[in-house]
């Protein structure tokens, strides 16, 4: 079955990619399977300088999900381009760089840095990390700031820009429209939802950062609802994510309005999650009378 | 060779002390590959994250691995209810264990284990007992009900048991008996962070290795959940760079 999807800057052999932050730079998972099987890889967030991230504990399990507050730990964009991108480029897959920052200038710096390499095919603009003190989520919760950072990055970068939206907003459609207007080539949604878990013996937050981003199957209905709403009002492509762990989940995201999907937390439970989903996808689509991934995209919203 | 998910068959499950489960699993490949200090990352159906569980011993001839864990929450409670014949989904052996190549014949080795940090120390003790070395073990537990493996240690090491409340053995913390154990060439320790802090502070001039526990995400080095600062102003990942580190290399 034809699983191919074409998006700005990306010709994906299948619509499955690991989500940013859940896959590092691919090295660890390349010990489990051939990364060439993936539609794309979204790298862990890059910032201008090296970041050591938050104190530990950084993760906590929740019902059908988990909280994390890693704090954008990464070696800095220059070292990512020098060490991580070439290793990933050896695989027959597309590379998407996740761009983070705490100021407009930092976003522009990081985005421009990726112009140096021919091996990165698109940017995912991370204006929605809930776990860093400055920037990040401020850009992702105020439509005017989201617009400003999107147009500045668009201007600085030679690559298509997918803006990663935060679900921690009252009106997701307003955010999506704002970044579309500012020239975003696509959307990536949703990032994690801010949450907290207390440690009963102490009555204090379990995660050192106090709050963390909730991910996993617990947030899937929220992702589906938001993608569905945004799809009605916005025409740029959507990379959908939020609790995907099966091929059925992928179909639901495609039906809701996504054009490709990212798998995050499921990789922790099953390191083979992405390839297991890729293997199961043809039969799942067939079971629901679809002939290809593009067929799902073409037929959604069409009255039968 | 690519890494895999393993199905491990439960051979035996025993409660060997309060809230403490010893489980023997059959999986020849893992039993042959495992070195002391490595861990298994077990999937418990219905729970998002795998559980990092330490290994107490392996029997490569019989193809078995014995793990030990404390029932602390829903996941470990569910795991404790497993019956012989059932299978557990495991990744592993994960991490880098205790390097013992530099342990010389005739050395006196201090082993310090606390609570659920005792099992990897036992695995190490068994391994070291194959060398011609003298072993001294200091084992710390909350109270008498939690004590396990004392007899097993006594067979291969001069053994001190310490309980926090004094209900068994010496009272206090593992560091309180260090004055009694005498001179040693190097030490190995595994236990909760406060214990490791006390041990490394007390033994700051000695050569030692510590094995750490931390909440983990992926367990394979990708998610950066279980990092630890190092003295050279960098960091290490407990799951994949560790869990064993030189005591001089990391900041606890």
Percent strand of chain A: 15-25%
The order of strands across the largest sheet of chain B is 10-9-8-7-11-12-15
The shape of chain B, in one word, is: globular
Q: Level of helix content of chain B? A: 10-25%
Most extensive interface, chain pair and sizes: A-B, 35 and 29 residues
Unreliably modeled segments of chain A = none
Cα-to-Cα separation, first versus last residue of chain B? 34 Å
Q: What is the N-to-C succession of helices and strands of chain B?
A: EEHEEEHEEHEHEEHEHEEEE
Helix/strand structural class of chain A: alpha/beta
Strand content of chain B: 35-45%
CATH homologous superfamily assignment of chain A: Aldolase class I
Q: Which class of the largest domain in chain B in CATH terms?
A: Alpha Beta
Count of helical stretches of chain A: 10
From the N-terminal CA to the C-terminal CA of chain A, the straight-line distance is 23 Å
Number of DSSP-assigned strands of chain A? 16
Oligomer: heterodimer
Structure description:
The complex is a heterodimer of chains A (304) and B (252). Chain A has 304 residues and is α/β, with parallel strands linked by helices. Chain A is 34% helix and 20% strand. In chain A, helix 2 runs parallel beside helix 4, helix 4 packs parallel to helix 5 and helix 6 runs parallel beside helix 7. Chain A is globular, with a radius of gyration of 18 Å. The relative contact order of chain A is 0.17. Chain B folds into two domains: 89 residues, Beta Barrel (Elongation Factor Tu (Ef-tu), domain 3), CATH 2.40.30.10; 139 residues, Nucleotide-binding domain of ferredoxin-NADP reductase (FNR) module (Rossmann fold, 3-Layer(aba) Sandwich), CATH 3.40.50.80. Chain B is 18% helix and 36% strand. The chains are: A alpha/beta (304), B alpha/beta (252). Chains A and B meet through strand 5, strand 6 and helix 8 of A and strand 13 of B.
């Amino acid at each position: 079955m034809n699983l191919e999807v074409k998006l700005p800057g990306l010709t994906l052999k299948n619509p499955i990619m690991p989500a940013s932050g859940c896959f590092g730079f691919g090295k660890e998972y390349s010990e489990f399977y051939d990364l060439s099987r993936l539609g794309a890889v979204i790298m862990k967030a890059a910032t201008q300088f090296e970041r050591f991230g938050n104190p530990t504990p950084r993760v906590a399990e929740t019902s059908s999900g988990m909280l994390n507050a890693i704090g954008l730990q990464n070696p800095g964009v220059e070292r990512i381009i020098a060490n991580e991108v070439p290793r990933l480029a050896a695989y027959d897959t597309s590379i998407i760089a996740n761009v983070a920052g705490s100021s407009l200038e930092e976003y522009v710096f990081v985005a421009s840095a990726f112009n140096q390499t021919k091996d990165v095919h698109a940017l995912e603009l991370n204006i929605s990390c809930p776990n860093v003190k400055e920037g990040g989520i401020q850009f992702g919760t105020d439509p005017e700031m989201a617009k400003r950072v999107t147009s500045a990055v668009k201007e600085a970068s030679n690559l298509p820009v997918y803006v990663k939206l935060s679900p921690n907003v009252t009106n997701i459609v307003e955010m999506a429209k704002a970044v579309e207007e500012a020239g975003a080539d696509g959307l990536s949604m949703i990032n994690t939802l801010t949450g907290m878990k207390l440690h009963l013996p102490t009555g204090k937050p379990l995660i050192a950062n106090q709050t963390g981003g909730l991910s996993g199957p617990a947030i899937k209905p929220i992702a589906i609802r938001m993608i569905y709403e945004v799809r009605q009002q916005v025409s740029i492509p959507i990379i959908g994510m939020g609790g995907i762990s099966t091929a059925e989940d992928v179909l639901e995201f495609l039906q809701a309005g996504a054009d490709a999907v990212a798998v995050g937390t499921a990789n922790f439970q099953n390191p083979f999650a992405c390839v297991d989903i890729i293997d199961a996808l043809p039969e799942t689509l067939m079971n629901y009378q679809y002939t290809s991934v593009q067929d799902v995209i073409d037929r959604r919203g069409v009255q039968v | 060779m690519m890494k895999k998910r393993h199905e491990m068959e439960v051979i035996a499950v025993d409660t060997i002390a309060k809230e403490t489960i010893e489980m023997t699993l059959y999986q020849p490949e893992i039993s042959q590959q495992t070195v002391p200090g490595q861990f298994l990352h077990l999937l418990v159906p219905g729970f998002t994250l795998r559980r990092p569980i330490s290994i107490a011993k392996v029997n490569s001839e019989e193809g078995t691995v014995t793990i030990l864990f404390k029932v602390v929450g829903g996941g470990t409670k569910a795991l404790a209810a497993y019956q012989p014949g059932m299978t557990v989904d495991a990744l592993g052996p994960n991490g880098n264990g205790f390097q013992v190549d530099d342990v010389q014949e005739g050395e006196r080795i201090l082993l310090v284990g606390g609570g659920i940090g005792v099992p990897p120390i036992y695995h190490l003790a068994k391994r070291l007992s194959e060398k011609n070395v003298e072993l001294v073990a200091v084992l710390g537990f909350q109270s008498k009900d939690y004590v396990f493996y004392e007899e097993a240690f006594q067979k291969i090491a001069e053994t001190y048991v310490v309980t926090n409340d004094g209900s068994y053995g010496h009272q206090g913390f593992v560091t309180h008996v260090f004055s009694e154990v005498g001179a040693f060439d190097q030490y190995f320790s595994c236990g909760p962070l406060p214990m490791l802090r006390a041990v490394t502070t007390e033994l700051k001039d000695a050569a030692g290795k510590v094995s750490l526990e931390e909440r983990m995400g992926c367990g394979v080095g990708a998610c950066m959940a279980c990092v630890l600062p190092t003295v050279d102003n960098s960091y290490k990942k407990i799951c994949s760079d560790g869990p064993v580190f030189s005591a001089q290399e990391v900041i606890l």
